[in-house]
């Protein structure tokens, strides 16, 4: 996607052919900085500290983390160590485990002196597959936006509310929830995006708004609590979010606050879609509310906030009284009954086991 008019992915190899480079998303939107990853520990830190985030990008980074690990120690012990370290970084995003399982299975029976090359090749392939998957999600989601626009009186924009960041910054390229928006915008279909700020890490305000602005898409950042008001007053035509893990039943785990948006959308009869690549589906789970693990993060993400001063300095300030503890649940689960449809690379389906099985019969 575009950064100052130049095409970028979120993860790539440096000119030396083995150093992994990423966009440090903790610096956005005020600074665009590239971070090199040269060790297994650096890759694990990038995932854990959210220099990279979003389920598909976490999976891609984990794959390259395995490749870096094979440069350091390509023994079976080294392979198992890398798997365990990376798998412990973020518990909710299923793409992490999917990528690690794939890499370990492919490397286990290979000669040790070939494992690094095999790992780099497979990681690159995963990245290319992710781009193709997300582009296809965009094509199918585009038809949803096109239908809403065609049914609306006049020629005003389709007003779309999204939550957190499920754009190209959350993937290798294109994004999930934002991919249909980019496709519509590029075809001249008028769209306007309400970007929830998404406390406590403000990925909507910092990341979604930044990438929409870079691409020239009309948008406005709103406080998390404003979405229901906008829906009540006819200012939202459609909701599209992403997901970090989807149960086989169609329940979806996404950034905390998504469930509340789905409830408001249902109350106001507004379609609520979730865009997801198939590696995000956890076919082993039937009850997402009960069984999807919910990550609890550092209290400081709630008690403090960072931003740019008028002088241009990036600072962190405390919001809460000294000594007040904070709860920081990173995700919630939206039950399938509140989801109008799931947008996948193979099409749009009902949020149900039968709906998913119809698109992915080989997984049933």
Word description of this protein:
Helices cover 39% and strands 19% of the residues. It is of the alpha/beta class. It folds into two domains: 2-128, translation initiation factor eif-2b, domain 1 (Four Helix Bundle (Hemerythrin (Met), subunit A)); 140-363, Translation initiation factor eif-2b, domain 2 (Rossmann fold, 3-Layer(aba) Sandwich), CATH 3.40.50.10470. Helix 2 runs antiparallel to helix 5 (115-151).
Keywords:
four-stranded mixed beta sheet, 18 strands, 364 residues, 2 domains, Rossmann fold, globular, Four Helix Bundle (Hemerythrin (Met), subunit A), 12 helices
Give the helix/strand layout:
Layout: E1 2-3, E2 6-7, E3 11-13, E4 20-23, E5 34-37, H1 40-48, H2 55-72, H3 76-87, H4 94-108, H5 115-151, E6 158-162, H6 179-186, E7 191-196, H7 203-215, E8 219-222, H8 227-232, E9 238-241, E10 245-247, E11 252-255, H9 258-267, E12 272-275, E13 281-282, H10 288-291, H11 300-303, E14 304-308, E15 314-318, E16 331-334, E17 341-344, E18 347-349, H12 353-359
Parallel strand pairs: 6-7, 6-9, 7-8, 9-12, 10-13, 12-17
Antiparallel strand pairs: 1-2, 3-4, 4-5, 10-11, 11-16, 14-15, 17-18
Helix pairs in contact: 1-2, 2-3, 2-4, 2-5, 3-4, 4-5, 5-6
């Amino acid at each position: 996607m575009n950064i100052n008019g130049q095409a970028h992915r979120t993860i790539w190899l440096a000119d030396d052919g083995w150093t992994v480079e990423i966009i440090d998303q903790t610096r956005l939107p005020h600074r665009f900085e590239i971070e090199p990853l040269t060790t297994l520990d650096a890759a694990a830190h990038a995932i854990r500290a959210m220099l990279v985030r979003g389920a598909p990008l976490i999976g891609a980074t984990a794959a390259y983390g395995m490749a870096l690990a094979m440069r350091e120690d390509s023994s079976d012990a080294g392979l198992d160590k890398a798997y365990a370290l990376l798998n412990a970084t973020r518990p909710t995003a299923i793409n992490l485990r999917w990528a690690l399982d794939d890499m370990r299975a492919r490397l286990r029976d290979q000669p040790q002196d070939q494992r690094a090359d095999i790992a780099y090749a497979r990681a690159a392939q995963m990245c290319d597959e992710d781009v193709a998957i997300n582009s296809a999600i965009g094509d199918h989601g585009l038809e949803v936006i096109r239908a809403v626009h065609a049914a609306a009186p006049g020629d005003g924009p389709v007003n779309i509310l999204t939550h957190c960041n499920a754009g190209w910054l959350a993937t290798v390229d294109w994004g999930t929830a934002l991919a249909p928006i980019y496709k519509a915008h590029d075809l001249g279909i008028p769209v306007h995006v309400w970007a929830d700020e998404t406390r406590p890490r403000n990925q909507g305000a910092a990341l979604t708004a930044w990438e929409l602005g870079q691409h020239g898409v009309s948008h406005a950042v709103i406080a998390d609590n404003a979405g229901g008001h906008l829906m009540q007053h006819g200012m939202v035509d459609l909701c599209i979010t992403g997901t970090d893990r989807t149960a086989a039943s169609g329940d979806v785990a996404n950034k905390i606050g998504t469930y509340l948006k789905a409830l408001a959308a249902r109350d106001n009869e507004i379609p609520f879609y979730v865009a997801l690549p198939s590696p995000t589906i956890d076919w082993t789970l039937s009850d997402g509310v009960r069984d999807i693990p919910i990550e609890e993060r550092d209290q400081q993400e709630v008690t403090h906030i960072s931003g740019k001063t008028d002088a241009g300095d990036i600072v962190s300030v405390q919001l809460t009284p000294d000594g007040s503890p904070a709860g920081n649940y990173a995700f919630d689960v939206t039950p399938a009954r509140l989801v109008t449809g799931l947008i996948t690379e193979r099409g749009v389906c009902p949020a149900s086991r039968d709906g998913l099985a119809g698109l992915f019969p080989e997984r049933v």
